Amino acid sequence: MIYLDYVSTTPLNQEVNHMYQSLLNDYFANADSLYSLGLKTSALMEKSRELTAQLLHVLPEEIIFTSGASESNSAAIKGCAFQYQNRGKHIITTAVEHSSVYQSCIQLRDVFGFEVDFISVDASGNLDLKQLEEAIRPDTILITMMYVNNEVGMVFPIEKVYQMIQKINPKIKLHVDMVQALGKMPIDLTHVDLASFSAHKIYGLKGSGVLYKKTSTSLVPLINGGQQEHQLRGGTSNTATHTMFAKTLRLALENLEQKYQYVTSLNHYIREQLTQIPDIVINTPSEHVSPYILNFSCVGYKPEVILHALEMYECYVSTKSTCSSHKSDISRTLQAMGIREDIAKSAIRISFSHHTTQDELDEFLFYLKKTLKTIKKQR
Ligand SMILES: Cc1ncc(COP(=O)(O)O)c(C=O)c1O
Question: At residue 155, does pLDDT exceed 80?
Fold first, then answer.
């Protein structure tokens, strides 16, 4: 099997898997129970919170365990909007966000009467900082954006956005979706108020995530209930899953730089090879991008047909963000970059891991060329 869809999800690390299985059996008690079985379960989960905080250089009370980044994004954006709406009802985001951010903003606009500005990007995927600066208003309460784009791979200048906020209106909260950066590049939470993470993108469990929330930021909880997660997320804690987050993160952060360099070399190799194939256009810009993601188009071909043809050789790629894969419209990210419609329509995303080998890439290239020869172009 040649798996080139690590942005969508990753296989489970076997160490994580084994420990998780034993936790499920041995630590099943409710973490809020007062007897020793519950206290032991709770202690393990709190240890995970401490270690996660340590690895991210923040405080344990700033770590909220969630069911994944979609929940973290929704809780951060809506929770923040509801908390600070007496200061203003204006939110700024970008035109290329993951659907969990985009839909949260749309819901705040259409159901709760907030105003939302979507900042665009240029043809190279660079965020329009001038447009962002002009969009900031006295009633802006939140700026929410991603660090690494999940479809094309561009990296946004979070530090510059933070400085802009400090200069214009320091009360604005900055939320960053760091899902595609975690375990791939260094994370600095000093300048953000809220950040979202997901475990299954870093060889961890599905249904596991973290929301980082600075102590100086408050949120209205979206799930009401008990005292769990500092009263921000009611419901019996998913202790085994939350306990595994720290180990997953620790493993993902090992040899970060080495893995980055290795994946960069793979990325250069495949870029070079793809450029030589007629009808292929690379959509991922060459600068300010993550080496882990490469988006390209086989112009004139239907990407779903290529995806399924490659699948016959056990070669797995994706057409766009997996969360939007059942919709037939063009990717919002490629559209925002102003990519020609026929190119955007035929986009394919491949994504790599430090487990990916050059042999796998060669095999993929072989099958891709074979596929392009055998399937028909769309007129
Ligand atoms: C940038 C980004 N944000 C959020 C998510 C949602 O993550 P989860 O599957 O943990 O809800 C994803 C996953 O596709 C993503 O790539």
Answer: yes
